[in-house]
Amino acid sequence: MQKLNKIYEGKAKIIYQTDQPDLVIQYFKDDATAFDATKRGTINSKGICNNKISAEIFKVLEKNNIPTHFVKLLDERSMLVKRVEIVPIEVTMRNITAGGISKLLGIDEGIILDNPVLEYHYKNDSLHDPLFNEYHIYALKLATARELEAIKDLSFKINTVLIDFFGKRDLDLVDFKLEFGRYKNKIVLADEISPDTCRFWEKGTKKKLDKDRFRRDLGDVEGAYQEVLKRVLSGK
Ligand code: UDP
């Protein structure tokens, strides 16, 4: 597998072309941003942790019949993935209140939601990823009704699988963000699933083991990512 030109560089990852048109390399950086990239920093070895955590989770999801862009791990910071067209919608799934929903609705963090809450955000940095609904999605022609049904259905299934997976590792899955892509006319899960894109609270202590340690200056950010990787690989 040959690594060719850089196609795209985002805040936390770089996508490289390969010698196969349908496959690209997703490379994970240590760069961290928060609050619309107004806060910037580096988290040592974050890229390594997120690459390995994401790979493991994609494998678990594939085993549960969730189609993903994941093909295989290449090295410490890279994975081979299918080249997809990203649907510009960020899906947020919430099981416990925190962050955006607490701010939006004026409610405390840490309230267990009886039913998971699904949100759509328009993936648009200059508009600050605004919350929107399916009518906006259709108005902007971002996805067809069939595609959005698939996205919604997969998001709830992924939530069920991940609550169980992390629960067995003594982590509460508070919330997370998903991105989907089109691959050969099918919707597949893309991007990453990591402490950058999920909130994890240790059961019992409620210790935050995710990017909130960076956002809120809670210290030992690197340790939190390492701890999540350790638990993900622990095969409990
Ligand atoms: N999230 C993300 N990328 C974003 C916004 C949110 O990965 O651009 C994740 C975030 O890490 C959290 C979940 O989505 O696990 C819900 O985030 P929220 O809407 O509460 O926003 P935040 O408080 O992170 O600004």
From TrEMBL:
PANTHER family of this UniProt entry?
MULTIFUNCTIONAL PROTEIN ADE2, SI:DKEY-6E2.2
Q: What is its EC number?
A: 6.3.2.6
What pathway does this protein act in? Purine metabolism; IMP biosynthesis via de novo pathway; 5-amino-1-(5-phospho-D-ribosyl)imidazole-4-carboxamide from 5-amino-1-(5-phospho-D-ribosyl)imidazole-4-carboxylate: step 1/2
Supply the enzyme class, top level.
ligase
What is the similarity comment for this entry? Belongs to the SAICAR synthetase family.
Signal peptide start-end: none
The chain positions of domain SAICAR synthetase/ADE2 N-terminal read 6-231
GO BP: 'de novo' IMP biosynthetic process; cobalamin biosynthetic process
Q: Which Gene3D superfamilies match?
A: ATP-grasp fold, B domain (3.30.470.20), Phosphorylase Kinase, domain 1 (3.30.200.20)
Query: What PROSITE patterns does the database record attribute to this sequence?
Result: SAICAR_SYNTHETASE_2
Matching entries from CDD domains are given as:
SAICAR_synt_PurC
* TM region(s), chain numbering: none
GO MF annotations in UniProt = ATP binding; phosphoribosylaminoimidazolesuccinocarboxamide synthase activity
Q: What are the alphabetically sorted keywords of the record?
A: ATP-binding, Ligase, Nucleotide-binding, Purine biosynthesis
| Species the sequence originates in | Candidatus Ghiorseimicrobium undicola
- Known catalytic reactions: 5-amino-1-(5-phospho-D-ribosyl)imidazole-4-carboxylate + L-aspartate + ATP = (2S)-2-[5-amino-1-(5-phospho-beta-D-ribosyl)imidazole-4-carboxamido]succinate + ADP + phosphate + 2 H(+)
Which Pfam families does this UniProt record tie to the protein?
Answer: SAICAR_synt (PF01259)
Report the gene name: purC
What name does the UniProt record give this protein? Phosphoribosylaminoimidazole-succinocarboxamide synthase
